[in-house]
Amino acid sequence: MDAIEALDWGAYSNFDHQVQSFPQILPIMRVGFYLGDYLAIGVLFSLAAVLFAVQGKHRSAQVAAVALAVALGLIFAARALVPRMRPGNAQNWLGPYEMQGSYPSAAVFLFTLAMVMLACAVWAWLHSARQRALYLALATVLTVWVCMAQFYLCTHYLTDVLGGLAGAALVGWIACRFLANRAP
Q1: Quick one: pLDDT at residue 184?
Q2: DSSP-assigned beta bridge partners for residue 100
Q3: Angle CA(84)–CA(162)–CA(40) in degrees, nearest 5?
Q4: Least C-beta-crowded within 10 Å: which of 2, 12, 31, 48?
Q5: Cβ neighbours of residue 14 closer than 8 Å, sequence gap 6 or more
Q6: pLDDT band, very low/low/confident/very high, at 100 (cuts 50, 70, 90)
Q7: 77 exposed, middle or buried (CB, 10 Å; 0-12, 13-18, 19+)?
Q8: How close are the terminal C-alpha atoms of the chain, in Å?
Q9: Strand, coil or helix: 93
Q10: Phi/psi of residue 85, each to 5°?
Q11: Helix 58-81 and helix 38-54, axial crossing angle in degrees, nearest 10
Q12: String of DSSP letters for 120-143
């Protein structure tokens, strides 16, 4: 077992033990799990596109759609290149067909990217530093909740979640660069 596998199994064992000791956390984590569901992600990206369209930023709505498509492509490409089984307890929440393709965590990747796209969509309406800080705090709390749900429900390893965060940061940064680069 190499160091990364040991880190993954250590975190997995810790959260599995926490669930055994405190099962009352499961209903809270289920909500975080459903926030990272494809339906919720679709709603968040649709909301970002509508907010861009309301502002007359049709190109920005297209960038958000392309960012989602690129993110999905990267997720499926990474899963093809890095075939990895999910933790054993993941079958409690997912079907047996979902046990393949653990890396990266699609829920974390797409939810984090949705929060970035929503930030770009609402930023112009948030005039004060307090409003912007409130949005950033809310987005951070929700993203951490989705990440922690992956751990507590034992659906992903630590490196899967970190890979999802890194992928969302990369795609989100590139999308923000396109949004900032306005045509004359």
Answers
A1: 43
A2: 85
A3: 90
A4: 2
A5: none
A6: confident
A7: exposed
A8: 55
A9: coil
A10: -80, 150
A11: 160
A12: HHHGGG--SHHHHHHHHHHHHHHH
Contacts from 61-67 at CB under 8 Å and sequence distance 24+? 63/175, 63/178, 63/179, 64/117, 64/120, 64/121, 64/175, 66/175, 67/113, 67/117, 67/171, 67/172, 67/174, 67/175
Among the listed residues 69, 162, 169, the one whose alpha carbon sits nearest the alpha carbon of residue 119: 169
**98: confidence class by pLDDT, cuts 50, 70, 90:** confident
Which tokens go with 54? 């309301």
Cβ distance 59 to 49 under 8 Å? Answer: no
Residue % of the chain over a pLDDT of 70 = 95
Residue 27 above 60 pLDDT? yes
Confidence check: pLDDT of 183 > 60: no
Mean pLDDT of the region 134-154: 95
Question: Across residues 101-110, what is the average pLDDT?
Answer: 91
Query: So where are the chain's domains?
Result: 27-180
